[in-house]
Amino acid sequence: MIGDIFTLLLLNPLVNLLVLLSHVLWGSFGLAIIAFTILVRVATFPLTLRQLHATRAMQALQPRVQEINKKYSDPKRRQEEMMKLYREGGANPLSCLGPILLTFPVFIALYSAIRIALPNSPEALEKLSSHIYGWSYLQHALPLEEHFLGVDLRGNGGDSLIGYFFVAAVAATTFIQSKTTVTTSTDERVRQQQQMMNVMMPFMFAFFAMSFPVGVSLYWVVNSAAQIGFNILTYGFPALGLQPVFKARASAAAPQAALSPMGTSAHHRPLLVN
User: Fold this and answer.
1) Is this prediction's pTM over 0.85?
2) CA 20 to 30 Å from 263, out of 38, 93, 163, 218?
3) What is the dihedral of CA 23, 25, 30, 32, to 10 degrees?
4) Alpha-carbon distance 31 to 142, whole Å?
5) CA atoms of 223 and 176, how far apart (whole Å)
6) Model confidence pLDDT, tens digit, residues 133-187
7) What one-character-per-residue DSSP string does 136-164 give?
8) What is the Cα–Cα distance from 174 to 204, expressed in whole angstroms?
9) Are 237 and 182 in contact (CB under 8 A)?
């Protein structure tokens, strides 16, 4: 039942959209994946922007969160104080999850769509036909070109030399994305955890890319590059002297919420909120 709903509402539309984009973009399935990724990022940009502002707001409140954890041993009272702090600071922990919850099923569907859209046998081609809508424009777009930049998009990242290039690109863009997202914490333990994650995540996703189709790696690289751009536009990039373009409004309670007991603001920056 769930599988049928997934196929009807997400997998089939995605397969047909990729076929349509491929036909429009001179028969290039690689360009279709890039165009699809850009379309998704543009469509979800307002949600992404809210998530980035919420992440920064949550980071700015961390010193006060640590104070509450130390001050209150009763879990119920601690939770009440946390909720009060979030309300005063204008931060919503759940708003950080929106893009993640949206991206994950799309990623899973894309993995399946690439397997379906680039068949490697007559039986697989027949299976693809069952997912294509009965529009002549789409029917005439088949079969699709499976090569892009000299690599077979159906093959796994570890199957060829160029495939390894995409694996390395996945690792590089993941690392840069984490560096443009994470704000250095005042807590030494948290800072060490951040540094560890910055190193581990690129290797982890590169390991996944070894066994994923190159087409999925292409999507990941373009998606990460777009996220890096959004991060710089929202957070700025001090190392290059770049200032944020999309600045969030600060609530009246936010500066007080971000103050430490010594009266200095967390991270010496104004609190960003939704």
Assistant:
1) no
2) 93
3) -70
4) 16
5) 12
6) 988 888 888 888 889 988 999 889 999 899 999 999 999 999 999 888 765 555 6
7) HHHHTTPSPB-EETTEETTSBGGGSHHHH
8) 10
9) no
